[in-house]
Amino acid sequence: MTVRKLPLYIEDTNYLLLGIHHSIETFQLAFFLNSFLGIQLQRTSEDVAKTSQEFFQVYEHEDVLRQQNWQLFSNKSFQDPDPSRFKTLFEQSPIVSYLVPEKKEIDSFLKFTAGSISMENCLEIVRKIPQISACYQISLQHLKSKNNLIFG
Known about the structure:
The protein has two helices and ten strands; from the N terminus they run E-H-E-E-E-E-E-E-E-E-H-E. By secondary structure, it is an alpha+beta fold. The protein has one domain (16-82, 90-149).
């Protein structure tokens, strides 16, 4: 009798993904996106946990009228390698992990469903935020860890 294994693959490519480079905290970015895009991103009650020590901030907004869902999430998580040991200023070096490891240069991702706003319009609006150094569309077809982006 042959054993057949079927891989579990969830395909949810019904969304657009924007990679954002910024010099501010994620909550500040959420504030600016709310102001410029006219949405209401709010911090979720639970962060996304990749492992027991890797947590990534998530902000969500569901626009029922425009039938759009928005998610902003950080790509970086910082952990203290030895929290019990006191360190001087120069000994502090946190361990950085990434939600999407192949896109380490990106600070945050904005994931949204195409409703009343297109990717071009969204890019045009987001690029007006002075604290953002760069933003661009991420191709989901070439993203190896796109299953990390499917949650909640």
